[in-house]
């Protein structure tokens, strides 16, 4: 079951020192307090690991709760940003389980004790990290037992923010995208906070609170006064490209269906943060992406 992550057909990211420095400056300059949704939302994007996976750290500056998406590697660097913003990681989400997106997952979980969330259809792929590592000629990362899953329509919440889970199979069977769009009122975000309890009970209660099922509901609409939404698209949609489908579990039919029926249904101004490379918008990809014509 060989795998090689990235855009279709074979857009590999070169990780030279010069490229890494430039990407860090570019992503950090764009990452915090600059996107739509809410001027207060903390959103740091850092390319990590050999394949420069875009790891997102999204935080609420009022409650200091956060989620981390796709911690592919360089966990200490991720934790430095978490500490700099004084954030408490409430959940770790992987858009899919290719090694470049989950290589640091177990270590970040050990450091934060936050629940790890993936789509169950990608669990088998995660169990073969050794084969993925062998294919890439790299060391097999530490793995963990994953028991918590998200599905289409679930909401992952932190502080006053929420990300709607969109199941977008094609790159992998369990690929997901996260639509960050609605901000809850502060009084709603702070309501019903649990009293201190044991670590195990706290983790279980927290997981139930952070993943709320909304299967079958319509996509959330923007609230008045908020900017355009943002989509963390994993390796499904890229600037000018789409995710590879020549890997285990990949399907060109499925990925095109996922993009056309689900992602292109979003407003043109929706910001897209892909799993690798530069940001784009739904409108730009609708008009210019050669794979979607």
**Rg:** 18 Å
* Domains (count): 1
CATH architecture, by name, is 4-Layer Sandwich
What best-fitting shape do the alpha-carbon axes yield? globular
Give the CATH superfamily. Answer: Ribonuclease Z/Hydroxyacylglutathione hydrolase-like
CATH structural fold name: Metallo-beta-lactamase, Chain A
Can you write the helix and strand succession as a string? Answer: HEEEHEHHEHHEEEEHHEEEEHEEH
Proportion of helical residues: 25-40%
**What gap, in angstroms, lies between the N and C termini?**
31 Å
- The spatial strand order of the largest sheet comes to 10-7-8-9-11-14-15
Biggest sheet character: 7 strands, mixed
Low-confidence stretches: 1-5, 8-38, 191-206, 213-226
- Which structural category fits the helices and strands? alpha/beta
Tell me the β content.
Answer: 15-25%
Mean pLDDT over all positions: 80
**How many strands?**
15
Put simply, the count of helices is 10
CATH class: Alpha Beta
Tell me about this structure.
By secondary structure, the protein is an alpha/beta fold. It is 29% helix and 23% strand. Strand 2 (53-59) and strand 3 (65-69) form a beta hairpin. The chain has a single domain, classed as Ribonuclease Z/Hydroxyacylglutathione hydrolase-like (Metallo-beta-lactamase, Chain A, 4-Layer Sandwich). Mean pLDDT is 80; it is low at 1-5, 8-38, 191-206 and 213-226. The strands form 3 sheets. Strands 10-7-8-9-11-14-15 form a 7-stranded mixed β-sheet. The protein has a 6-stranded mixed β-sheet with strand order 1-2-3-4-5-6, with helices on both faces. The relative contact order is 0.16.
